[in-house]
Design goal:
The protein has 485 residues and is an alpha/beta fold. 36% of the residues lie in helices and 18% in strands. It has helices at 7-10, 15-27, 32-42, 60-68, 112-126, 142-154, 171-175, 196-206, 235-243, 287-304, 320-331, 348-361, 384-395, 401-414, 450-464; strands spanning 49-53, 87-92, 95-101, 129-135, 158-163, 186-187, 223-228, 262-267, 270-275, 307-313, 335-341, 370-372, 427-434, 439-444, 472-477. Strand 11 (335-341), helix 12 (348-361) and strand 12 form a beta-alpha-beta unit. The protein is built from 15 helices and 15 strands. The strands form three sheets. Strands 2-3-1-4-5-6 form a six-stranded mixed sheet, with helices on both faces. It is globular, with a radius of gyration of 24 Å.
Length: 485
């Protein structure tokens, strides 16, 4: 049992491989705790997810900026602000997690309650824990009560944030929020930072050390596929076509909150679980809001999935929103397949220009399997499963440390790093600290430039495959001997 893999102790290295690796690190002058730290950072699985929910203008985006430590979430009083991103990475007390921000979108044609409820529903769906933000100066409103019902139904751990408590005199306002029945309200001023540390301590208690298992209920359970893409690219049609029946209904009844449905579908003799992202209710008069809901729903689906099948409307030019969705899936570390829909409608000219667009706009995911399909006619649907299986295989691939270092040694000898400032940094050795997606940590004698890292990634793909998966490469530089901090 010496070669048993201990993912929680030292990435995915077996005991014998780990011992050999640590000996190599010591020979190159790296301290044991330095190496352990690098392996720990690189070897983590998907990060726990924290959703920040609440009605408009209670300070959600301000709080998100406070949590992530930078002004990135857009904070504006104007309703309908659309942001490129809704998920951010954060760290507190040495623990990392993702934050899903639902701020910045106000009342729509269906009324404020429906707007807030839909946002909360999508965010809670992806989350391991929730921060529910309430304006302590206003007190609990009917909309707040509606969100509380959603939270109770979801059964996720909740930290109640009583925001806009700018001084001791306002703490009595926060105490009034005990009435919501969600436990102790944490008095916070997101604007000034007051009380946010105590609130984040409570968040860490609510978040799991490792994320909840999202990939099937048991070993060998159905693999989870998110079918994502911008609105009206044919997600519902594709899901119905692969299911062989009308399974997805888009409900446009005003004010209804539709529970997302995960579809169990048999394809190629295998049962898959398709995470439904198709049922985004149309916001006819407020297109900005529809785009925002789509982003939020996509983020929720990707967090729950193993594979993201990204649907592109081949009859139209590749849009900025298409690129954002691809980036979201890559940053989430999911296996990726790109499906170009409506292929049967293209003439020769459009096919020519589409190929040029793919070369320029999707160069960063040239490694992703591609299928040309028609959701209407069912054309090439049989190619979808092999592409998904290829992406999953790449996502789960692990290169043994000995083989990786033989490869790195040959690579560095044949293609050394450029000399910078009279010095030539070298990659000394490395290991693959994790899979799903593959995560490598390289140990070097000096700073390795981004261009050389990309070169290493390209060569890794050429040598070992990794088709259909992003690769994460982190570099740890050896500290100068005798330097004390």
């Amino acid at each position: 049992m010496n070669d048993q893999i201990h993912g929680d102790e030292h990435g995915e290295l077996g005991d014998a491989e780990y011992a050999e690796f640590m000996e190599l690190a010591a020979q190159e002058g790296f301290e044991a705790d330095e190496v352990e730290g690098a392996l720990g950072e690189a070897g983590h699985g998907p990060l726990p997810v924290l959703a920040v929910v609440g009605r408009p203008n209670v300070g959600k985006s301000t709080l998100v900026n406070r949590i992530i430590g930078r002004r990135e979430a857009v904070v504006e009083d104007r309703p309908g602000v659309t942001r490129d991103r809704v998920t951010y990475e954060a760290e507190w007390a040495g623990r990392r997690f993702k934050v899903v921000d639902t701020g910045g979108w106000e009342q729509d044609v269906l009324g404020i309650d429906a707007s807030v409820a839909a946002q909360a529903e999508y965010a809670i769906e992806a989350a391991d824990a929730v921060v529910f933000v309430v304006d302590a100066t206003v007190g609990a409103t009917d909309t707040d009560e509606a969100v509380v019902k959603l939270l109770r139904r979801a059964g996720k751990p909740v930290v109640l944030c009583a925001n806009k408590v700018d001084g001791p005199s306002a703490e009595a306002d926060a105490a009034m929020l005990w009435s919501l029945g969600l436990g102790e309200p944490m008095p916070v001023s997101a604007l000034h930072g007051r009380g946010t540390g105590d609130m984040l301590d409570e968040v860490l208690k609510a978040l799991p050390e490792a994320p909840a298992q999202r990939f099937g209920t048991a070993v060998g359970g159905p693999r989870r596929i998110a079918l994502i893409g911008r609105p009206n690219v044919g997600k519902s049609s594709l899901l119905n076509k692969v299911a062989g029946e009308e399974r997805v209904v888009v409900n446009e009844l005003a004010g209804t909150t539709r529970d997302p449905v995960d579809e169990l579908i048999e394809l190629g003799g295998v049962t898959w679980k398709f995470v439904d992202t198709a049922g985004i209710r149309k916001r006819v008069h407020l297109q900005e809001g529809a785009d925002y809901y789509a982003s939020l729903r996509t983020a929720a689906a990707v967090e729950k999935a193993e594979v993201a099948v990204i649907l592109i409307d081949a009859s139209e030019s590749i849009s900025v929103q298409d690129q954002r969705i691809v980036t979201m899936a890559v940053e989430a570390g999911r296996a990726i397949v790109i499906a170009y829909n409506k292929w049967d409608t293209l003439d020769e000219e459009r096919r020519y220009y589409l190929e040029r667009e793919i070369e320029t706009e999707f160069q960063q995911v040239a490694w992703a399997p591609r299928v040309n399909v028609s959701a209407q006619t069912g054309r090439h649907m049989e190619k979808l499963v092999p592409a998904i299986e290829t992406a999953l295989a790449g996502w789960e691939t692990r290169v043994p440390t000995g083989r990786l270092n033989a490869f790195l040694g040959e690579l560095v000898a044949a293609h050394p790093h450029p000399i910078r400032g009279g010095k030539q940094p070298r990659i000394l050795f490395g290991t693959q600290a994790g899979t799903k997606p593959p995560r490598f940590v390289l140990f070097a004698s000096g700073f390795i430039e981004a261009g050389y890292r990309r070169f290493v990634e390209r060569r890794l793909r050429e040598e070992f495959g990794f088709e259909g998966t992003p690769i994460h490469i982190s570099v740890r530089v050896r500290e100068k001997r005798g330097r004390k901090k």
